[in-house]
């Protein structure tokens, strides 16, 4: 196959953590050229001045977002907070650009539910039906042809990949699911809030959003798609004094006719055997977030404490890679018929 | 009451983390004098040479354990790994010393169960019935007169205090309890194992012991005492890159006739209103481990996500203080009719 | 001496890190009562709501600063950024209150120099001559009777205590002094700046302010007082991914007739033998910041690498305690003829 | 040029941190195949079982070191503690293998000096003269044809690259050089010592080896090569609570006729303009260790505080990459006429 030219990529909102993570990966992507990266506040600033890790790797300056410029790209990533992408989306799609949105704007199909959790009215609900939820392990075929991919969020990715084989096969009580999750501080983005200061967040551990967190409707929607009906999940996130990484410890009650742990292990291995980025670790394993740091992998392990009827699935990802920018690139690779792992071959630092 | 002399205190196994934590607290305890601290390997070494934080505070040297010397103490603390205290206990009790054991040797009343989890035969099972489980909020009266107090473990303390009002009042399904817990690295003690190296444990998060952890039988025994019958708990511990602290996120299913969240909040507040070291935080709170760092407090908060029937209780302690040495001193204070908070008035560093 | 009543203490600017550190220490101070703590932004908020570590320890609310209220105190602490204390100072001193200023407003005696480094005009330069520099090891007698004590800064305390015996005795070349220092992130205060986010500052190390830092003129002034003439210091601070602590590694060239290392060790020990908060560790020691965490101690050690003529002094303090709030209380104790260590008996957590 | 086959690479001592770092980089190296990796203790264990970050990337098992097997390699890396490589070296060189030694065995040319610092007798001093010191920025031409390259150590690399242009040009007093350095904990290797436990090393900062450190003779030898005569360096290392990274803050006294700071900046830029892995940052910069984490770069910046005659050079590297395994691969690339940056194009994670 001849691939005469590199894909032209634009990034809206390049100053945040998902923006620089996109750049880190795209700079070494063999089939891609980043041609525009926007920031209203940093217009004209060299990207490598803000992110010295990119010195010598990228000769590009931030520019104000301009639909004309972005319209000449093959694909545009939105690495923005929620409530930005949806405002530019109709105009941008009209330019025949394909879009991968890393924000939450198009993940929840029900505009009412979205509004309730994000305290905003959705400005283009008509696109919600068209948007494809960007979790390749669920939606690979739909992603191939999508104009607009709404990348799965970080917690949702870790939880859904850990529960997918169970719910697809109806093996657990899906009305009493529990996801006790923990994230590194980069999950909070680059916003300067007191609780995210190192003096506050380090040498500490806490739950947050225990009464309700914005990722819940997204996760329950995805799990319902797997189960074929509505599910109930209790989701409690925690903040870990580390930079990157999400761990989901998933508790579910096995149905009385559920297979044995060894059979479940095999089921998981088979479900994911062709997935380039999901690794079912051997029985008895405990995945660690550092095993996937900076990589696009999700690593899973199964446990059945005391052989009782509660199954424990452990699921780890890097929130900025498989939980955001890596998954966005994986989606792009699928959309443009590139090798799915192109640009995503980094190996975790250890130690 | 006249209190003419200070209590003479001995510590067996003073070189570990619970040992130095005992010293930190006892040095400023107004009614106590530490007269002996043992270590076979460090015999003759000045304690302040090993722990420079104690320079100028404590003029004492490590000595080899000697029942004669310890026998002249009013109280002896065991700050040893399991399988040490039980070997000295009969001889020591024969000297009319009262003992507070911080190790696991006398926590589980069933010698068979103990042997199964600790891979040792219990050498003095006849003392198991006499030993009082050292969780003051459960057993204060029995502790007053006990010869031998088996201090509650770290995870068990956090979990039991969070579940006590629920189980005493039969408000939740006690056959499907879940404790998703997380501990700082000092919980692993001073043993030099690769996974506890800073290069391995920092900037990382992982579950461990997910298929079964030694603290399970202790916790289930305590919860059963509260419920009046056997319970089932799924307990998954995690390792947090922080030094001290335990967080227990407790999930339980409310019975259909259970009170409202506001009523549960009141119930918790009433249950603990006279407890000097249990703090029920306001509705909506998220306790953080740093709020109790270096102190003997447990701080709790209740949540009912989406108003569904799963209750979430958050419980934090310092694993070395309320989870070990502080609780041991609280037990000692009760045993010797001292003010229960004597020596335990430290306030957490913030930040 | 009869001491019928507790000192009435006011704190201006109680929401920052030096404010809460003052509270942590003053709550357990036997001769003090905190009667007012101000914050314009948090007026009416319970202090323990902002700092849950103080729940159950302090029943006080923030109030707007009011000279009438503060004027009824015996002593007022300023725990504010620079440029606040000097604006209230004349009015407050007129109320016959004694003041301990933790900010930089009155540390540098030369108003011109101060203006140059702080980019502000000094509004009450007439008080600069009266203000006593609050480093007790240098100025104890002057502190006793001072109306206004300007507490020594964090880096300046660590550096000056490490160099004091050398400069007082003229043993090193004081025109080529080097202080390579490192601070935990709490030194940056509670201000929300991107570089202080945990995602930016953790798992990282960097120099900052290498071309010039505001603490330089304060340090050089203090060193000049010791030497009896102007000195030259190269001062480079670094940011360490820890919460509290300062380490100063001090390099100086011994004069050709300087005493031996063993003699220097003795000289340091003698100079500080009556100082309650300066600990000269044994030859060959390496003080660690955790050895003084949360305490008012400075720990020092001397090295002479390869027996050459460069002397290395290592000096550690807790930037918020001996480097700020602890030292402020030590100054207060001296001013009011209280035991100098009152309220300052905390022992460092280890681990 | 045709390059029909991949280089066959062997690694002796693959279980430590420099071993796994070699693997991380070599797995993605386009011109290399790892054919053997040895460990006596882990013989037969799959490498990916010990390092789950390599799951799916490397299908190789540890084997006992065997000169026959290693002798069939094109190049062998020693990722061992000191005192191992020198024992196998003569036999291995006899097989016509080229060797890159990451340990300290062949770095110091004077066997007497080596013995004094490493407390071992050197077993093949006759090879010391042949060994080429593996700092490409100094010795690129000699490396090309070397049989045995002794890779520069971590601190030595950071210090030497920061001082090279100054000493080559005789611009500073080379008898009073100071290197105040700081390293992450991975510098201590995977050896299980109490001070390297996370409970001991985190939230802490300390100097160590202040009276003399093994890297001193290596550094002074390199600096002397640059200067053309013996130099004197005071070197004090510090331990930082981070995993990877070295910062060297270098102090030197400019000669009276030295050029201006701007001219020095230009001099540094010119000296390193063709170096693929040395980045002279703009005037006023503060390199951070995270800017080079996981990469083979050294980033430098110059400061002249207060315009006085002390020059400050800041130098950062990743101790495991440019300070060990990355540099080893750079050396290999040079030895085998491969593109010097092959396999070394990783970009630092930020955040």
How would you explain this protein's 3D organization?
The structure is a homotetramer of 351-residue chains. Chain A has 351 residues and is an alpha/beta fold. Chain A has helices at 17-27, 47-50, 67-71, 85-93, 111-118, 136-145, 154-168, 198-201, 215-227, 261-271, 321-335, and strands at 7-12, 32-38, 62-63, 75-78, 98-101, 132-134, 148-151, 177-183, 206-207, 233-239, 246-253, 278-280, 298-303, 310-317. In chain A, the strands form two sheets. Chain A has a seven-stranded parallel beta sheet with strand order 3-2-1-4-5-7-6, sandwiched between helices. In chain A, β1 (7-12), α1 (17-27) and β2 form a beta-alpha-beta unit. The longest helix of chain A has 15 residues, at 154-168. The first copy, chain A, starts with 6 loop residues before the first strand and ends in a 16-residue tail after the last helix. In chain A, 60% of the residues are buried. At the B-C interface, α1 of B face α1 of C.
The proportion of strand residues of chain A reads 15-25%
CATH class category label of the largest domain in chain A? Alpha Beta
User: What coarse outline of chain A follows from CA principal-axis ratios?
Assistant: globular
The share of residues in helices of chain A is 25-40%
Number of domains of chain A: 2
**Within the largest sheet of chain A, what's the order of strands?**
3-2-1-4-5-7-6
How far the N terminus sits from the C terminus of chain A, by CA atoms, comes to 40 Å
Task: From the 3D structure, determine the CATH topology of the largest domain in chain A.
Answer: Dihydrodipicolinate Reductase, domain 2
CATH H-level superfamily of the largest domain in chain A = Dihydrodipicolinate Reductase, domain 2
Largest sheet, strands/sense/barrel of chain A = 7 strands, parallel
Q: Output mean pLDDT of chain A.
A: 97
Sketch the topology of chain A as an H/E string, one letter per element: EHEHEHEHEHEHEHEHEHEEHEEEH
Radius of gyration of chain A: 20 Å
Task: Name the pair of protein chains with the most residues at their interface, and give those residue counts.
Answer: A-B, 51 and 52 residues
Number of helices of chain A: 11
Oligomer: homotetramer
Beta strand count of chain A: 14
């Amino acid at each position: 196959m001849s691939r005469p030219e590199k894909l032209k990529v634009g990034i809206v909102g390049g100053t945040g953590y998902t923006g620089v993570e996109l750049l880190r990966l795209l700079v070494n992507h063999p089939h891609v050229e980043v041609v525009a990266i926007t920031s209203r506040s940093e217009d004209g600033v060299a990207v490598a001045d803000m992110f010295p890790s990119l010195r010598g790797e990228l000769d590009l300056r931030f520019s104000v977002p301009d639909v004309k410029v972005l319209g000449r790209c093959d694909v545009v990533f939105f690495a923005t907070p929620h409530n930005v992408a949806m405002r530019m989306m109709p105009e941008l799609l009209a330019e025949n650009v394909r879009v991968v949105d890393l924000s939450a704007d198009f993940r929840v199909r029900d505009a009412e539910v979205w509004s309730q959790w994000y305290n905003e009215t959705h400005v283009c609900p008509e696109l919600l039906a068209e948007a494809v939820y960007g979790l390749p392990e669920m939606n690979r075929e739909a992603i191939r042809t999508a104009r607009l991919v709404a990348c799965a969020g970080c917690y949702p990715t870790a939880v859904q990949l850990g529960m997918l084989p169970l719910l697809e096969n109806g093996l657990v009580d899906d009305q009493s699911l529990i996801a006790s999750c923990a994230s590194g501080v980069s999950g909070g983005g680059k916003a300067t809030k007191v609780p995210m200061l190192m003096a506050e967040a380090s040498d500490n551990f806490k739950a947050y959003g225990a009464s309700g967190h914005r990722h819940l409707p997204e996760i329950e929607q995805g799990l319902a798609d797997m189960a074929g009906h509505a599910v109930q999940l209790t989701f409690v996130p925690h903040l870990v004094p580390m930079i990157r990484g999400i761990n989901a410890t998933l508790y579910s009650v096995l149905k009385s006719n559920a297979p044995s742990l060894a059979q479940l292990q095999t089921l998981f291995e088979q479900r994911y055997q062709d997935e380039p980025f999901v690794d079912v670790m051997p029985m008895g394993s405990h995945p660690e977030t550092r095993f996937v740091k900076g990589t696009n992998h999700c690593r899973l392990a199964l446990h059945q404490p005391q052989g009782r009827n509660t199954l424990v699935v452990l699921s780890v990802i890097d929130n900025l890679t498989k939980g955001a920018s890596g998954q966005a690139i994986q989606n792009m690779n699928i959309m443009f018929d590139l090798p799915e792992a192109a640009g995503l071959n980094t190996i975790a630092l250890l130690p």
